[in-house]
Amino acid sequence: MRWLVTGGRGMLAADVLHRIAVTGEPVLALGRDELDLCDARAVRDFVGAYRPRVVVNCAGWTAVDLAETRETEAMEVNGTAVRTLARVCERAGARLVHLSTDYVFDGTAAGPYPEDAEPSPVNAYGRTKLAGERAALEHGQYVVRTAWLYGAGGPNFVRTMTRLAATRPLVDVVDDQRGQPTWSADLADHLVRLAQSDLPPGVYHAVSAGETTWYGLAREVFALLGEDPDRVRPVPSTAFPRPARRPATSLLAVTRGEPIRHWRDALHAAWPVLTGRAPHAGQAVGKVGW
Description:
Layout: E1 3-6, H1 11-23, E2 27-30, H2 40-50, E3 54-57, H3 71-92, E4 95-101, H4 124-138, E5 142-146, E6 149-150, H5 157-167, E7 171-174, E8 178-179, E9 182-183, H6 184-196, E10 202-205, E11 208-209, E12 212-213, H7 214-225, E13 232-235, E14 260-262, H8 263-275
Parallel strand pairs: 1-2, 1-3, 3-4, 4-5, 5-10, 6-9, 7-13, 11-14
Antiparallel strand pairs: 8-12
Helix pairs in contact: 1-6, 2-3, 3-4, 5-7
């Protein structure tokens, strides 16, 4: 089975490439400089020549706040380009696995959102990602929503907290947004297994089990570093005003496909990969982070 990974220079793409390499199947990862998904002719010509069996689309506009003032550009990447890719894949008989986000929801639900919940984004980024979802589904493809992603490459919250732990005596972190921290390697494994499965096209959720706040996640990171978690102070979202509104409780229910392990177990397993060292010996799983 021949694979194509778009957005091939990003954090998630690196883990997807590693996971596919284990199978021994041919895979090609392309960044924007090599394949601009906004160029419909280039996409059509490349897919027609390379003839992938599966396309994993890790490309996208991810600058949430910038999308508020540049929504047209974000829509071109997250919406229009996905429509082109989905159409081309459908005609070529290729399976497209497209990545989306919890930001397609408004975050006001009493519990986790199931896959069939009605989306209602509260910011420009969410609107553009929802457009991409609908485009992929219209052409019979797969949409995988994830959230709070971290990994060894690229900027992410875990890396930021690790840096701040070494440079600041106290760190203020938002404690009124709840979510599911998800390791990019776990997500990559999930994506590959979905692409290899007999599951039908549609929407799937791929997030770690359990839930926490950014504050809870930050405390866990400090404890793993051997630092005092009480150096992390909880604050409301209003302490950090941002151009784009964030959903308060963007929890995703996993009712289709396979679940992913608990976020805390994943973070402990990821720690040597993220930092090059083992978790601090005094940190026991399950004691910090709620």
